[in-house]
Amino acid sequence: MSTFAGIGAALSALTTNRRGLEVTGQNIANANTEGYSRQRLNTEPAGTMAPGRWARASNFEGGVNVTSIARLRDSYLESRGHVEHERQASATGRLEVLSEVQTVFNEPGGTGLQAKLGELWAGFADLADNPGDLGARTQLLTRAKDVATALNSGAGELSDQFSAQRAAMTDTTADINTKAARLADLNDAVRRARQSGGTGNELADQRDLLVMNLVEATGAKAVTAADGSVGLSLGGGWLVQGATARAVDPAGATTLSGQSANPVGLVWQDTGTAVSGVGGAMGATLSGLNNTLPDYAAELDKVASALTTSVNTVHTAAFTKAGVAGGAFFSGTTAAGISVAITNPADIAASGSATKALDGSAADKLSELANSATGADVAYRTAVSKIGIEANSAKTVLNTQTAVTDTIDSARASESGVNLDEELTAMLTYQRSYEAAAKVMSAIDSMLDTMINRMGA
């Protein structure tokens, strides 16, 4: 290698190590940046073409070339990360829905429907002991109204939860559409950056963070195309493909009462066709709107129906103090529509005989409905048990899934996260290499000065 070629080799070393310091500095600066992938400088030895047969080795130049600035990511771990994060988002959404439903039942507790039902049956027992007592009759009506109000309130809360979650879908879909459009733009930006000779690494980090967010939100599947762009497939259609994004809109009922006839879903904005296979957080929301909330509204309706049927069956076969056949005690067979049909305490039929005004046998039968195998208490306890089991199961699933997701994220961080100790070591290595290359350059400069200016002096 000639002396002048040595300058070239030393210069390439200076340039390479300077770039290495820049890459290391970039890693350190973004150690806490969400979605950032650490970068690494890849190099190879420089040289001229292969020597001729009789060429001498001293005729060849040397040095180092930068081949690339690699973005350290493991495609398998990233794919696993998508799967586990989507599952965690789905599990989180399901638990949130069930937790909201639990607040409607509010059991066990002294103010829940179970306690009010117990007070109602106790009121019938008090009336059986004192059929002619106006106070007992008035108190019974008050307790019956409390039960009806509790059922009305429960149905109203479930309806409000439905309306709130359905309204939130509008904001959620708008966010999905914004991120999908941004992902398409980043696909194009990364492609143009690489075509112009840049790395596009930081743009790719932003892109992959958006991909993860959209996977969590929709359950879409990420697909890497031949040109390096990342597409998102959702239910057989493309949410994002290359530099093109499609938008989605919420569709279906906006009230709980209309859900059965018009289920809630997503549709493609450009065609109006339904989006299938939605998962992640949006999938949990759709499941809550189409399954969980209607199911528990139906459970409350079963309680109301059982209460109305069982009480009215006994009450209409009984008699008032005046010997008149009893009418319906409750009206309505749904939780939202149930109410006390009697307004006058004297119209309560407590007697089992038209000729025995103070016979309390009918009121006694009504009090025993608390133990009926087909009564309101059994229906309500079934609903409470169901929500408790489902919520507990959802919590267990989420805890398990969180542990799995954390394990995958740790592996991803080990591969692509910034380790400051490693970066400091790399920084010192590049620094020392740069200083050594500078000394080589200085030594060659001194040699050339001697050769040019002092020889023959």
TrEMBL record:
Domain of life: Bacteria
Keyword Lipoprotein: no
Alphabetically ordered keywords of this record: Bacterial flagellum, Cell projection, Cilium, Flagellum, Secreted
Domain Flagellar basal-body/hook protein C-terminal per the UniProt entry, residue ranges: 414-453
Family named by the database record: Belongs to the flagella basal body rod proteins family.
Keyword Secreted: yes
Places the protein is found: Bacterial flagellum; Secreted
GO molecular function: structural molecule activity
Name assigned to this protein: Flagellar hook-associated protein 1
Any GO CC annotation of this UniProt entry: extracellular region
GO biological process, one term: bacterial-type flagellum assembly
Residue ranges of every copy of the Flagellar hook-associated protein FlgK helical domain listed in the record: 98-330
Residue intervals of the Flagellar basal body rod protein N-terminal domain: 9-36
